[in-house]
Design a protein that fits this description.
alpha+beta, SH3 type barrels, 2 domains, 5-stranded antiparallel beta sheet, 4 helices
């Protein structure tokens, strides 16, 4: 067929044929997606299916058709399907490993944002994380909140004593007890005295 064309067209044939095939694949993908969307819409109306189901099915079908059309286009352009599949599986594996490796950090960062938005406690509050309603939990005064940890002062003051760093996602996995103002719970003596001294200092400033 190529030999029957004029000489000037033979020079462009190798470029025009793949381009025409790519355009044809795109048109078929668009038409197929439109037909399937109408079919799904009619089925939902006829059988009374929820709209959320129709939206989900349309998205899945659109993704599958787009992926198939992309692979066909790359194949027409001379890219090997084996190479594409190998590259895809490699990137997917690396992405999955990186996601699971960083999941703990990302979870804590997200919970930090939630803490700043919902304000379950503030700096200076005394909080207690409870395992259940019977056993005492982790208790201390909130002295710092960063992207990963919330720091609780257990005993002493900022120069001496003990502190505990709690991962921020833990505050959304356990029950939280919180005290404000003068309602100070029973704490270790050093922390209790430190909180009293801090209250007296604030009274003198006032």
């Amino acid at each position: 067929m190529k030999e029957r064309l004029p000489m000037w067209m033979q020079e462009w044939f190798d470029l025009l044929l793949p381009a025409a095939q790519v355009v044809l694949v795109i048109l078929i993908a668009i038409l197929l997606q439109a037909l399937l969307r109408r079919l799904i819409q009619r089925l939902c109306v006829r059988y009374g299916l929820p709209e959320e189901l129709a939206v989900g099915v349309r998205r899945v079908i659109g993704f599958v058709i787009t992926l198939a059309a992309t692979l066909l286009i790359l194949d027409r352009l001379g890219v090997s399907g084996t190479v594409l599949w190998t590259a895809f599986t490699g990137f997917a594996t690396v992405g999955a490993v990186a996601f699971f490796a960083a999941w703990s950090v990302l979870s804590n960062i997200f919970c930090t944002v939630l803490i700043f938005i919902t304000r379950p406690f503030r700096l200076g509050d005394i909080v207690e994380l409870l395992e259940n309603g019977e056993k005492p939990g982790i208790k201390g005064r909130v002295i710092d909140v960063n992207l990963i940890y919330t720091t609780l002062q257990e005993t002493g003051d900022s120069q001496s004593g003990t502190i505990m760093q709690i991962p921020n996602n833990l505050f959304f996995q356990r029950a939280l007890r919180r005290w404000r103002g003068d309602a100070v719970p029973s704490l270790p003596a050093r922390l209790h005295s430190a909180s009293g001294a801090a209250s007296e200092g604030e009274g003198k400033k006032a």
